[in-house]
């Protein structure tokens, strides 16, 4: 079975941004597709602040997770 999930990489650890249904100690093959572009991007928080919108970091993380939830998860 193939699944596509979004994850964040911090300090050597990949953390899924959504629930993953795998048994503990499963061995998987991780294919990395970088979603960042080559050109520098302004962080979402800074962009919103420039528009006069101030959100808590928790709200920003929630919005990102919701956006990723709209991407297809299974690849055949």
Count, helices? 2
Oligomer: single chain
- Rg over CA atoms, rounded to whole Å, is 15 Å
- What's the SSE pattern? EEHH
Distance between the termini: 9 Å
Helix/sheet category: alpha+beta
Instruction: List segments where confidence is low: pLDDT < 50 over at least 5 consecutive residues.
Output: none
Helix content: 25-40%
Averaged pLDDT: 77
Strand residue content: 5-15%
**Neighbour order of strands in the largest sheet:** 1-2
Outline, from the CA principal axes?
A: elongated
Biggest sheet layout: 2 strands, antiparallel
Could you give the count of β-strands? Answer: 2
Mind explaining what this structure looks like?
A hairpin with a 2-residue loop joins strand 1 (7-10) and strand 2 (13-16). This protein has a two-stranded antiparallel sheet with strand order 1-2. 0% of the residues are buried. The chain is built from 2 helices and 2 strands; from the N terminus they run ββαα. The chain has helices at residues 44-50, 57-69, and strands at 7-10, 13-16. The longest helix is centred in the last third of the chain and has 13 residues, at 57-69. The mean pLDDT is 77. With 76 residues, it is an alpha+beta fold.
């Amino acid at each position: 079975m193939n699944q596509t999930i979004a994850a964040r990489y911090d300090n050597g650890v990949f953390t899924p941004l959504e629930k993953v249904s795998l048994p503990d100690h499963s061995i998987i093959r991780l294919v990395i597709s970088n979603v960042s572009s080559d050109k520098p991007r302004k962080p979402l928080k800074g962009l919103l602040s420039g528009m006069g919108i101030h959100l808590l970091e928790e709200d920003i993380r929630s919005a990102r997770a919701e956006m990723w939830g709209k991407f297809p998860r299974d690849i055949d």
